[in-house]
């Protein structure tokens, strides 16, 4: 069972980010279009967390209240009037708000979904023995003995892993904090952890990082965008060419533009490339390939900024069909006269839709992606990215009839193979 | 909770069906391509019944064993060596096989899914106050007082409903049967029901019937086929013309042909209608409309004979697209020369697929039929049945260019309206 409550420590004054955090607490800085805290809270909510308790200071209170209201999170705010007393003291202030097992995490850490899925099942301090996305020098190290914390600190000589800033705790932790508070004024979380000899759970090698200096935000953004590629169902051209470019564009745009805006722009660019056939076929071909590259950006931005929408996917899929159709039709219109060749054009246009139809119809009937159910599908060529690339090549060399003949064969062959693979896998 | 066991009474010698039941027990007669008993058992299995106990006589034993093996039902057979002692005695023979609440029903009754869904939730004897599909004259009537059976019999003057032959019982019923058996040799179920003053549950007006004379089988078959029309997603032409014809064809064919065979025949007929364009366009148009009518038959037969398959639906949907495409392409090929009109043809062909694409893609993304989620969709014209009918009309009057222009507008208008409705309903 995932604990129902999560305590978030956000009372630190975050001096290292300079002017960035003059006004905005670290947890509310946007990374890839979303506040750091939005990411953790949204995923944890999906995983079953019912309420959040945010410990912050007087200065940031208003910002946090606005953030919670804007995003409709169920949360309480507890004010630490003495942030200088350390984050152990912040934790202690949550003592009346939680009765059962609870989560604790740092507001300035970015956690990926996979990390959180594992972490919430753990116990005690979550430690990463293979931290891929943090600067080890700067990280807090943990020395473990018999599955419990033996020592913790930035400068340990000998250690087993790195403190991820994520905990699964019981209220007993508060009495330990109280014990230390009876001895001194300032206490850090690491003091409590060490005194408690906290149990350790290892979650290794998954995406999480913390934000200390401005470059961290950019690095995190690029990582998030790169891991936002859906991938499954990508053709060869997508995998080895388009995605390399589109993810860079997405990283540049993710903070400035919405997925829907990009969908519309890509669509207009596609239609524009079709009209370019009346002016110059090679130019049109190149522009068509560019629009095919941009076609990945809306999905990447949507996933990276946690703004995916079913309607977005639905409309995007229909718009893609219209772009392909318009391009092939105008291309045929300016080059082809004979009815026989028009029949080939008809077959090519129809086949281009049928490639998507045979895929979507599978998901409609069987309820799952065909690429997940039938891995062999990934090796069939004829997907949109590949067709767009081929189209550009043939436009550049001016062999338009050959293009249509190729598309007419390629697409229907792909559909036939798709049906065959479905039959082989699913029987009749 | 649905009881885990169901007792089936099938020891009667069924003389009224004449030669039909010389060899085959009534419950194993096929109605709409499936044994009567297969229908009840399959649906009850879906509803949660784990095991069946079939009480039959020595003569039918082998037939039942073969039936169970063929269909992989989990069942025991209990032999009633004295079927002449009545069906109350048959029930009594099940006494060692059931410990908890159990279902009891007659092997020669056909029950629809809706009826069974309600009946399994009931208690005691299931009584129908509005029996639509049985001959009241011949039915066993039930007089009810305070929710319990007061009297039961074929010739009651005053009664509240009709005995459906379906019961939800507890093992107490066996001691009542035993009590009567200590008094006499022959006992009918109705004797036991009356002595027990069995509790009554009303399930009114849903499909169930019993099979007594050969005409009952034909009547039941027609009813099952008629209620097997999927309906949701049918266009106007389908509803008011095609289905009226296709259900009759289905009723004639359901016992003789498999859904897959019909799918292939319909596809070949569609392609044949397309090729007819080279010979005579009006003839081709008529044949295309005929193939559009037949297009409903595979689904009807599949549902009526409980042989639906996802793969069947998948392939059928793709084949339909190919028939439409081939027809429009050959029609255009024999009539149209100018590139401008070919562009219109391209738009019409593309639009015809996009109507289905925008529908299937919805189901792929949202996981439900667009017609269930957005009822307004039913009033949009442009579906396949309507397009096929329009095509036939225009082929008959020879206005082929007008047809393509109309299809080019109609289909894309429908797609645009579909997207708009989805947006209105589902937001962005």
From TrEMBL, chains A, B:
This is Bifunctional IPC transferase and DIPP synthase. The chain crosses the membrane at residues 264-290. One of its GO terms (molecular function) is metal ion binding. Its EC number is 2.7.7.74, 2.7.8.34. It is found in: Membrane. The keyword Transcription does not apply. It is a multi-pass membrane protein. InterPro entries: CDP-OH_P_trans (IPR000462), CDP-OH_PTrfase_TM_dom (IPR043130), CDP_ALCOHOL_P_TRANSF_CS (IPR048254), IPC_transferase/DIPP_synth (IPR053433), NTP_transferase_dom (IPR005835), Nucleotide-diphossugar_trans (IPR029044). PROSITE patterns: CDP_ALCOHOL_P_TRANSF. One of its GO terms (cellular component) is membrane. In the N-terminal section; belongs to the MobA family. Belongs to the CDP-alcohol phosphatidyltransferase class-I family. It comes from the Archaea. It catalyses: CDP-1L-myo-inositol + 1D-myo-inositol 3-phosphate = bis(1L-myo-inositol) 3,1'-phosphate 1-phosphate + CMP + H(+); 1D-myo-inositol 3-phosphate + CTP + H(+) = CDP-1L-myo-inositol + diphosphate. It is an enzyme of class 2 (transferase). One of its GO terms (biological process) is phospholipid biosynthetic process. Residues 6-121 form the Nucleotidyl transferase domain. Keywords: Magnesium, Membrane, Metal-binding, Multifunctional enzyme, Transferase, Transmembrane, Transmembrane helix. Its cofactor is Mg(2+). Its main location: membrane. It comes from Methanothermococcus okinawensis.
